[in-house]
Amino acid sequence: MFQLARHALQRLAAARPVASTEPLALWCRNHGLQFSNLGPMAFAVQGAEGARIWRAACGPSTRGYIADHELLARIHLGRDDGNLIVVMHRSLRHDIEAVSQALFSQVTDDLQTLAQEVPEEVRWVSTLRDTGWQGPPAVFWERFAVLADDPAAARRWIDEEAVDRLLGWPSGSVTPQTPLLISRQRGRLQMRLQMDPPADPDAAVHALDLLRLLAGQPA
After folding, report:
1. Which residues are CB-neighbours of 156 under 8 A, at least 6 positions away?
2. Distance CA 207, CA 210 (A)
3. What are the CA-CA distances from residue 158 to residues 84, 114, 133, 148, 209 (Å)?
4. What are phi and psi of 119, to 5 degrees?
5. Quick check: pTM over 0.70?
6. Nearest CA to 208 among 51, 1, 58, 94?
7. Per residue in 55-69, pLDDT tens?
8. pLDDT over 60 at 75, yes or no
C-alpha cells in the first residue's frame, strides 16, 4: 500500500523544480541554528537555543507510513516532565491502527512475543488515551488526535496558540491527509512530517516554528 505512493512521489520529484531553501536558512540564522543544504529534497538543521538541543533533517523516509521524504526534527528539552503526549493527523492514526491490527494478529494463542519489534507509534495508538476538551474548534478534533497518558498535561501543552499553528499551515502545503506526528516523551520533542516533492520551504519553516513553540510550552 505504502510502496505505490512512494514510487509515484519519486516520479513527481524527478519532474518538478527544486524550491529555494533561503527561507529555511534565514529562519535558522534568526534563531542561532546552523543550516546545511544537502541537495534536492535534503537539508539539515542543528544547534542549541539555551538548554534545548536541535537536530533536524529532511531526507528519505524511515517510516513505512511516510512516502518518499520526511522532515524529522528533534529538540532535547533539557528536562523530563514525565509525560507522554502524541499529536497526529487522524488519517495517520487510522493508518497506524491498521498496521497495529495486522501486527497483533500475528500473536499466537500462547501469546508468544512477536517476531518483529513493535514500532513505538503502534504502541502509542494501542495504549494511550485519545483525549479531548472544550476550547479548540470542532475542525481541530476532526483533523487531529491527541493521545496522552495524562489528559490534563496534554491540555496544558496544546494551548490556543498551538491549536492555531497546527491548523494554520501555508496554503496547500500540509493537508489533513499528510502524515504528521509530534511526540513529547523522556525530555525530547520530535516531529515527523511527510515532505511532498518539491519540498516546500514555507512548510518546513512552519513545522520548525511550531516545534519551537511546543518546546516552550509546559506540560
Report:
1. 217, 218, 219
2. 5
3. 13, 35, 11, 12, 15
4. -60, 150
5. yes
6. 58
7. 999 999 989 899 889
8. yes
